[in-house]
Amino acid sequence: MSKKLLHAGPLQHDEVLVLLTSLIKDQLLPHTRDAKPDTSQKQVYYFSMEFLPGRFIETNLLNLDLLESCKEILRAHHYNPDLIFQSELDAALGNGGLGRLASCFLDSLAALDFAGHGMGLRYQYGLFEQKISNSKQVELPDKWIGEDGYPWEEIYSEEAVTIQFGGRLVSGYKDNRLTFDVIGPERIKAIPYQIPILGYHNQRVNYLTVWQAESIPGQQPVEFEAYAKVKRKAEEITEFLYPDDSHYEGKVLRLRQQYFLVSAGLQRILTSFFKSDDHQIFDLPDKLSIQINDTHPALIIPELMRVLVDNYKLGWEEAWNLTTSVISYTNHTLLDEALEKWPVFLVKEQLPRIFLIIEEINRRFCLEVEYKGLEDWESFADLSIIYQENIHMARLAVVGSHTVNGVAKLHSSILKNQLMKSFSTHFPNRFTNKTNGISHRQWLMNANPLLARFISELIGDQWKTDPQALKDLLKFTNDPDVLLQLSAIKHANKIRLVDKIKAETGHDIFVESLFDVQIKRLHGYKRQLLNLLHILYLWDVCHEKPEAIKVPRTFIFGAKAAPGYLYAKRIISLISSVAEQINQDPLAKGKLNVLFLPNYNVSQAEWIIPAADISEQISTASKEASGTGNMKMMMNGALTIGTMDGANIEMTELITTEHFFEFGIRAEEVLAYERNGQYSPREIYNQDLRLQKVLQRLVDGSITGDTVAFQDIYYSLLFKGDEYFLLKDFGSYVNVQNQVQNQFLDSQTWQKKCLINIAHSGYFSSDRTISEYATDIWGLVP
Ligand code: KOT
């Protein structure tokens, strides 16, 4: 136990947390260090460069069925449980949707009693902390690991493995086989740390293993400077998380991170596999599934081939059958700038043997394609894994997996029928859809205890283990008392958020206003700028026709921009500057309030989401693969204003468009414009007076007093093609926003819509998603 606890007097919040954490770890969890692995069940490993779990204390207490009693005891001793729980660090080893999905999946794997584990990296610095200074984003390092380490983890130094980079490849011939030796490689130690992931009321404990890089003692040259250099070169591998979301940066360090993860992870998996005496290498597909979270861990394909061919001496065909039977790949984006392509020279230099294997995979695949008669050069340009001196990782991932899935219906369909059409023709049964989900335990039971309790009062507890039972709420759609209580709960959650914001930023918010929320990474395609254009329009209305604003609104933004994504940072500046002006304009007072909350993260989301009235899901159709914030807000009784994109489409299928504010052009139209280049934002501008006024504000000095301040944004819309079709969708967005305010005036009808949304949100529980992966991809029996 920490020495800090030995002082006398009442314990500080963080000290109580230390006590709770060690109690859970030491007393309630089985001691795994010596435990034999359970080999009766097939093991699933979810490989991901990102995990975004947020805090664990509440989740763990909930899963152990101790949350309520623990809160009571704390209160009885005059502690505020919320304050204690909030003193836990928020582990931010991910950027956004992709990493958060990985964490929800681990939660559901354990809840459904599957042996499903995570494999990730233990970055010393997680996603940067964001400050806003002079309306600009400033990034500060997120040193998330405390002085005493991270309370939930356990180090397994004795199970460290070695990872090799570089060296000179020498081929030979021995026992009738080609052999490959790497001479003089750089060797780096990978140390595993395990974080327990608990199942809900089922005593299951799975693990998230995160790896840390270290130099290998004894290997270093003696001279201090050379020694320090080697040490740095090793440690830098797990020093920081790349802060890019849906954007690929071809840095050698990132490539080294990726290989480090897959090589370390695979060694651990195989060691554990062979701990069971009766396991033979050919049993791998029966005993093991590996899911790769986007292409970031796709090097596991050639790595597994290397191990099987070079170490286990299997023939190529045998090894290939095992590899492709074990691995499956999830694609999370269609954006061209996010698709990974590693330059051949980099891979050759860092991973010479792996490069040869990729070449061989590609050679055999191209022959197979040619044999089928698709030998024209266009097909090869689309299909070849190595093309124009780059390795196309998505192609490698498709060829080396038995199943490829997208993350919502529309996304999977574009993936299969457009982006990867040549591949789906070649592998007609390989492509499938698995619509994303979220953990209803974390995002409803933990984040919104008032609503969770109310739901249980109405329909019992079954929904907690069978979230689709939330549909039983439909019985109450016309019950005025229920609707009134629902509204009271939203109100209480809004007060909770308002108090928190007041305490942290000093900002006053009018609780009775409509809370209009857009929280997600900042990206052009997510169109925070469209939201802002509507706000600028409303600002004009405040001046010209104030009576038209019938419902006061609070616009809440939370968004981090990748440090190198300048356009995204400019939009943050614009939002903050507009917020400052509007919030001090007497004519907007009591009508419009705009907030940019700095440092949006998982813990903040847990406060904001239960308080949202409107959820903004306004991406350019076809660009947002799924979205998961949309699901979280739906489950917490917000209504969605959204385009027909990602999982919004399934959402409208469940609740019908009557209970959803739909607007904007459809994916086919966007894709057609992109093909034919005939979109003209200027034409739209010329015909829409509202738009002209709004865009003028960007260059007339009314935001910062400086007329050139936002010229770049103005130009991007009017003269640089408006890549994300903001002007095209502006009119229908303003119209549907007007419907929002009209409908909000009728509280009962509004609450009825909220109830219908909540009732159908069980479909978006990640328990449903994981059940589908389990039966359709991993071959697991529930
Ligand atoms: C990032 C880099 C490369 C490739 C993909 C990404 C990526 C995709 N990062 N986050 N995503 C999001 O993943 C979520 C979970 O599937 C989706 O809901 C969301 O639409 C993606 O943008």
UniProtKB/TrEMBL annotation:
- Give EC number(s), comma-separated: 2.4.1.1
Q: Spell out the family assignment given in the record's similarity comment.
A: Belongs to the glycogen phosphorylase family.
User: Which reactions fall under this protein's catalytic activity?
Assistant: [(1->4)-alpha-D-glucosyl](n) + phosphate = [(1->4)-alpha-D-glucosyl](n-1) + alpha-D-glucose 1-phosphate
Enumerate the cofactors the protein uses.
pyridoxal 5'-phosphate
This one is known as Alpha-1,4 glucan phosphorylase
Task performed by this protein: Phosphorylase is an important allosteric enzyme in carbohydrate metabolism. Enzymes from different sources differ in their regulatory mechanisms and in their natural substrates. However, all known phosphorylases share catalytic and structural properties.
MF (Gene Ontology) = 1,4-alpha-oligoglucan phosphorylase activity
Q: Gene3D superfamilies of this UniProt entry? A: Glycogen Phosphorylase B (3.40.50.2000)
Q: Do you know which InterPro entries this protein is assigned to?
A: Glycg_phsphrylas, Glyco_trans_35, Pyridoxal_P_attach_site
Pfam families for this protein: Phosphorylase
Q: Which PROSITE patterns match?
A: PHOSPHORYLASE
Q: Which domain of life is it from?
A: Bacteria
Keywords, comma-separated and alphabetical: Carbohydrate metabolism, Glycosyltransferase, Pyridoxal phosphate, Transferase
Organism name: Alkalicoccobacillus murimartini
